[in-house]
Amino acid sequence: MNKLFIIKIGGNVIDNSDALRSFLGDFATVDGRKILVHGGGKIATRIGEQLGIESKYVDGRRITDDQTIDLVTMVYGGLVNKKIVAQLQALKCNALGICGADGNLVPAEKRPVKEIDWGWVGDVKSNQLPSDRWQVLLDNGFVPVLAPLTHDSNAHIMNTNADTMASAIAVALSTAYDVRLIYCFEKKGVLESVEDDNSVIRTINKESYAQLKAEQKLFAGILPKLDNAFAAIDAGVKEVLIGHADDLLQNTTPSTTGTLISA
Amino acid sequence: MNKLFIIKIGGNVIDNSDALRSFLGDFATVDGRKILVHGGGKIATRIGEQLGIESKYVDGRRITDDQTIDLVTMVYGGLVNKKIVAQLQALKCNALGICGADGNLVPAEKRPVKEIDWGWVGDVKSNQLPSDRWQVLLDNGFVPVLAPLTHDSNAHIMNTNADTMASAIAVALSTAYDVRLIYCFEKKGVLESVEDDNSVIRTINKESYAQLKAEQKLFAGILPKLDNAFAAIDAGVKEVLIGHADDLLQNTTPSTTGTLISA
């Protein structure tokens, strides 16, 4: 099977133009089929403030009202996405900037209202991704660059978690390619001690994950990422790698950098 | 050869949500391969005012400075483009929202500075469009929805004329498909008398165009559209139709509505 790299970057890379340039330079050199999934970054909040759109959060997560979905559609789907595309095209990497709504490549549904109305937030329908359409793009030399937006099949755009999109794509394409899913974040990997940047845990499997959780050793912010990673592994993705953008792409031997997630 | 419809809509449709919904309903029903090219509309100016970005014009044409290119990248490439995609997807039309930078589908170069520095404005390199990449998308069921942006091969996004993009795509694909290029605008067609909305000229060929220009009968604003149309015809496009969005798609027999441009 052909290799496919699915690489997700978040705000820490997007918000820093030097870090982004450096990352994209590395990304452009990755051989073969690849997909870049990007988050939003703080720029949406900054532009929202200029437009008088107040950011509302519950438990640190944004509520996406009518104004906010227009804001993130502009910023994630337009500004961030197309700037990445222009940079990659300048590096002769054939980036195609899209979002999950385009080609219905990441089907989703509006999150049901329970205690909290999250507004225009989409949950990925993980078992409905059209792997044939993805293959058309990948097998013809396009490098999809994906913004974290989907649609609700009722003419609305929705804000959608980029980590989840990346893992859903990885799972859907794992029957067609030898998929390596890479989450880039601000740390060198999953840390044994949050205070010590060099305490990277080299490998985590299901058993050690259960133990780490039981001991409450892990930083809470990493748990959704790890849950996404194990969901992907359970569903056929070969490797998930978590770590800092600087390290992961330059050195693609997973044993030497970041945290490798395996069954 | 298979038919390909390339349909361009401008601000008069985009700025009016009812007109846009009606147009997209018609567009979704057009059988077979199709591309939608959209302009920007007044919404960029409105959001620009909220952000304190002053619109600068020379001879009615926008100067695209650093702030303005970010603005139109957000609004055209994000907000307008993705809202159209979500509406078309709700109608089961497999829209893929992109711009000319994506996949380098519309190569362009920065307009040289002469008397006027237009800023981040791209001129289409008409003879360099990758028709093979377009065919991959069209022949696999994607319906490209194109925002009027390109890139300069040096990591910058550029504002680009949507009429010109539509005609360059039409020309590039005229060897692979039987192309009908359709310009939707606010009038029912090219008018013999600007005051009379019903004075539509049914057909214009090169000879009659030369005569109409000599007699200075035509509204100046229509001349660039007609020049684009004749450039397309000269380069192999079969038909160019100019008229109102309401009429053109519902009735695809060109003799009964709008203005048909022929050699």
Automatic annotation (TrEMBL), chains A, B:
GO terms for cellular component: cytoplasm. The record marks K8, K225 as: Transition state stabilizer. It catalyses: N-acetyl-L-glutamate + ATP = N-acetyl-L-glutamyl 5-phosphate + ADP. It is found in: Cytoplasm. One of its GO terms (molecular function) is ATP binding. GO terms for biological process: L-arginine biosynthetic process via ornithine. The keyword Methyltransferase does not apply. Pathway: Amino-acid biosynthesis; L-arginine biosynthesis; N(2)-acetyl-L-ornithine from L-glutamate: step 2/4. Pfam families: AA_kinase. It comes from the Bacteria. Substrate binds at G40, G41, R62, N159. Residues 3-243 form the Aspartate/glutamate/uridylate kinase domain. Its main location: cytoplasm. HAMAP family: ArgB. Belongs to the acetylglutamate kinase family. ArgB subfamily. This is Acetylglutamate kinase. The gene is argB.
